[in-house]
Design a protein that fits this description.
- The protein has 374 residues and is mostly helical.
- The protein has one domain.
- 65% of the residues lie in helices and 5% in strands.
- Strands 1-2-3 form a three-stranded antiparallel sheet.
- Strand 2 and strand 3 form a beta hairpin.
- Helix 4 packs parallel to helix 14 and helix 12 runs antiparallel to helix 13.
- The radius of gyration is 21 Å and the shape is globular.
- About 2% of the residues have low confidence.
Length: 374
Amino acid sequence: MKYFYLLTFLICFIYPPLVFNYIINDTFRIILFIIHFIILNFLYIYFTNRLNYNKLIILLLFIVTAICNYFSSNESYTFINSLNYLLITSFGILFYELFENKKTNFLAKYARYYINIFYVISIFSILNFIYNLFPFINLNLNSFPIDKFEYDYNVSIFGISIRKEFFGINISRNQFFFVEPVFISLFYVFNVFFVSNSITKNKKRFIFLNLIGGLLTFSFLFYILSTFLFFRRMKKKSIMFLIYAPLLILLIIILSISFDTSSYLDRIIRFNYGLEIIKNMSVKNLITGGSQFGLNSDIESGVSAGILSLLIEGGIFNLILHVSIFKYIIKNKDLFLIILISLFVFEPYKYPFFWISLLISIFSIKPSIAKNLQ
């Protein structure tokens, strides 16, 4: 089973939102994912002694959605792309069932691997920030094949950083080997406020490292979600609340003023672009999806908001199905709200690593389960 655990995290690392997906051949990645998915289904049958009829029905609904998408767009690429993302969602559903099954012990094993991985990721992000303070040291990976878009990327042995101007001072936004800081910021939020509940040994160290890693992304998503969760957990009448509340709000205001080239401005433009597409979609495409949208020459990118992509790519049914799945597996209101907010920023449901992180977060806040993880 150890090799299967490692295979899972290998798939997480060769899929977006990590930059290693630029290196790995798409066909190889999808074949590897399908093999893993088949093994995952056999493991479910082995441990539960039954076919997962409910999940098979959901998978069939996904396939029907992808087929409708194909006939709407008349492009085989659109069909394969949609099917790939729908399989990733099914991957998340199956893992939810296996994590919930106490016979498998999957949850404890994956949680330990995941926590150790993020010890490394957060430490590397901190080291990368320190490294960028000393320009005379050269540990760069200049030949690393990454699509740089318009950003000033710097790739070192510790990860990727983006140089941004903060009140006239150049700083580095650190993101390990994720494509953008906003992607990893959601993982840091999961770790600090949810995954950490399952840790009994060195809990404060894990929280501290992931909190620093999140702060060094200089991502609006991390600051906004962390502020929200911080307020939710702090007693409103406490002195700490009165001290930190205005400081956190002031920090977000300062960031919004100073990062005039931050990706959040680009995401607002892309969000409006997505709304324009939906406005011009036919009734048929609103139901089945498959609208042609691709890249916009003015903003050099497509729609980034997951809530819009679900509707554009798969129609109303696809949107309702995904939101219903999140509602079904997430019982914690704060966590569910965080996912909804994230869906207005990017498309986390398309990433296997997101599902593993989300599921560990879900079970980490269940007292009866969390105490058995570490």
